[in-house]
Every structure is written in structure tokens, then in C-alpha cells.
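ingest -> validate -> predict -> emit
validate: passed (alphabet ok, no gaps, 435 aa)
predict: started
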Amino acid sequence: MQQRTLAAMIGLVVTAMVGVACSSGSSSAPGGGGAADCNTPPGCVTVDAGAPIEIGTLLATTGATKNLGLDSLYGVELAVDYLDGTFDGTDGQLDGHPIKLVNETDGCSADGGQKGEQPLGSDPQMVGVIGTSCSSASLGVADKFFSDKGITIISPSATNPALTSEGTHQPYWFRTAHNDRIQAAVASDFAYQKQGWKTAVTIHDESPYTQGLTDGFKANFEAQGGQVLSEEAVNSGDTDFKALLTKIAQNPPDVIYAPDFNPVCALLVKQMADTSGLENTTYMGADGCSDPTFLSIGGPAANGSFLSGPDLTSFTGGDFYKNDFLPAYKQLAGSNPISVFHAHAFDAMNIMMNAIKQVAVVNSDGSLTIQRSALRDAVQNTNGYQGVIGTLTCTPLGDCATSVTIGVYEVPNVGFKDPNAKPVFTETKTLADVQ
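emit:
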């Protein structure tokens, strides 16, 4: 992709859209179609002159998965910083209004999502939300809650296929993350075609994210000729997997595919090394495992296992990411990226802010009127947006990353440890490829 186009999109192109959408000193609606209709649900948000535009985040910034959420939060904060076209530690403004981030945690669970969504959804000034981190906090939870309220929400990392499937998609929910129909297909291609593994056991932690991946892996793996010997489930709070692993070792598979979250991922790989009969069985996980705790908890046993996720090298080599974004991230976080969805969050926040610019009506008193349904439609109509992670075009069902490059990394050479780490296997697929 051309990273210079990103700056143009955020700067010149957005400025042009503002000129079309909002005429200073008037109260005309976007495109000159008359006053915004605020009487029809879900109505409008009015931002007083000089007051901040409130955008919420609902990310997994606490608990065992906090690196996943913090990594995305840094991406959101960098997008606000870059509103003025430079990473200088000083936030830019939208139509003369500062951005106020209201941050809640999703707990990477349904309960956490319900708790975190309440203060955001009860705030009448909440314009939009970036979140959730985890599918379990979105599916049937935040996706429905915010859609019922007419609040647009864009997730940087919730990947469960049902979130954007016919019949289950909620109309105000979008994502810049990949659809796990793609990741599951790439993981099975790596296992069967690249590694030559013929047998597998899957382990999910009963969350929508992990079950979506294990179901997709099984379907694709067996379609190619592989055999899933058993489908196992654990609880995300479990720490002792010896009995389960001993059972699996009675008929050891070539691979255990357990795309769970840490610490489950790390404890599984560590305890596999101590289980007789699994000496020739390889562990494979996914992006839920991809943070430094996988290495610190798993220890030497983690080496030689495989993790799939976004192929960071598909965008980390670009001039903007390498020369601008990554140094700014390091300055903000004090380290290299701690997970793999920071750029997805940066793009999600920019799509949200660009949509606000398109639909906000600048009134004669300097206030803004933002029609909620128009904001949702503007996000829906995102087409050919040149983001950090690639070209984003949102489908009617909320998938904005429709062509995705997934990489498989061999531990310890992984992207969260080194943004320039090379995957051992990579494939680019579209949603049409895996339907």
C-alpha cells in the first residue's frame, strides 16, 4: 500500500469533505440537504461550541488480556494525536473541537462488556465507540446494546464470524479486524499443506472468539483431508490441564490447535512439554496468545510452537508505519507494540473521526449537530480507505477488512516481540475465498 495516501486521507481529503459537509456559520445538513433530523430515533448529539467530542473506548485494558486492549488504546490515542497531521504529543481537533476519550474496559468477557458498556451508553454526549477487544464482549452484548441505542461502534480486534454474519450482525457494529473465517482457513492451510499434519485436536475456552476459530479450523482441515481426533473445551480460568493433555496423549495428534487467550495458551504449551506421549505434537495458537506473557509464562517450552495472526510485515515495512507511527508508539507506550492490533485501532479511530467530519453540521453558534444514523451510514459507506493495515471498504455486514493477509509465526520469532519478524507462512484471502 502507499502510506503517503494515509496522510492525504487524514489531511487533504478529510478537509475537502468537511468543506462539502459543513458550512461554517450555517445550520445546513451534510451535502446541503436541510437541517439534520434529530426527532427521528436514534436522534442526534449536539456538541456545544468549544466543547469536546466524546468518543468512548471499550477495550480489554485490565486483567490477563490487558496487553491486547492497551495495545489498541495506544493506537486510538495516536490517531487523536495525528489529527493535526503530525505525531507531536499534542492532540488535534475536529471542526475546532477537541476529542475527549472516555475509556472503559471490556474485561474480555460478556460480563465485562455489559459492565463497561453501561456508562458509555448512558452518556447522551457519546458520539461513537472503539471496541470491543474481544468477541465475547461484543457478540450479543455490546453489538446489540450500542446498536439499540444508535451508537456506532468499530472493533479493532473482535474477529468472531458471527459478528458479521447474516442474521446475527447488529447494524451499528463494524470492525477493522479480520474475520476469523479467513484466519481459520489460513491456519488449516498451514497445518495441512505446509506442515503436512494429518491429525489434530482442537481446544477452545468456550469464548465466541476461540470457538469460531476451532470450528473454522476443523471444517477447513477436514475438507483438505485432515482428521480432527477430538474437540475439547476448557474454562478460561483453568490453570491445570494435565488430565486433559494426558487423555489427548493416548492418541497423540500431529498438532494441538488451541487458539485461546493467555494464560491458557502459555500454560497449555508449558504443560504439553511435561506430558508423556506429546513429544511429537506441536502447539498452534492464534492472535489471542500474541503478547509477551506467552513467552514469560510458557518459558522455553513455547519455542517451536506457532501463532497465527495479522501479517504485520504486510504494513510494518511501509514508510509511514516505520518512520512515523512506530516511533510515536514507542514514545507513548515505552516499548515496541505489545500486541498485534494497534494499527487496526488507529485505522478504526480514523474511520470514526472521518465519518464525524462528513456528517457533522456546524451551526451558527459554533456548536455541532451529529445525526447518529448519518454517522452510521458514513462508516458503512467507507470505500477504498487507505489505512495503515491496507485498503478498507466496509461491507453491509460490518466487515471493513475484506482482503486480509494472515501470517503464521514460529515462536520466539513473533511480531509482538519484533514488529519486523517474518512469518514462516503467509496467505492473503478475501471473504469470498472462504465462503
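The domain at 3-178+314-403 is CATH 3.40.50.2300 (Rossmann fold).
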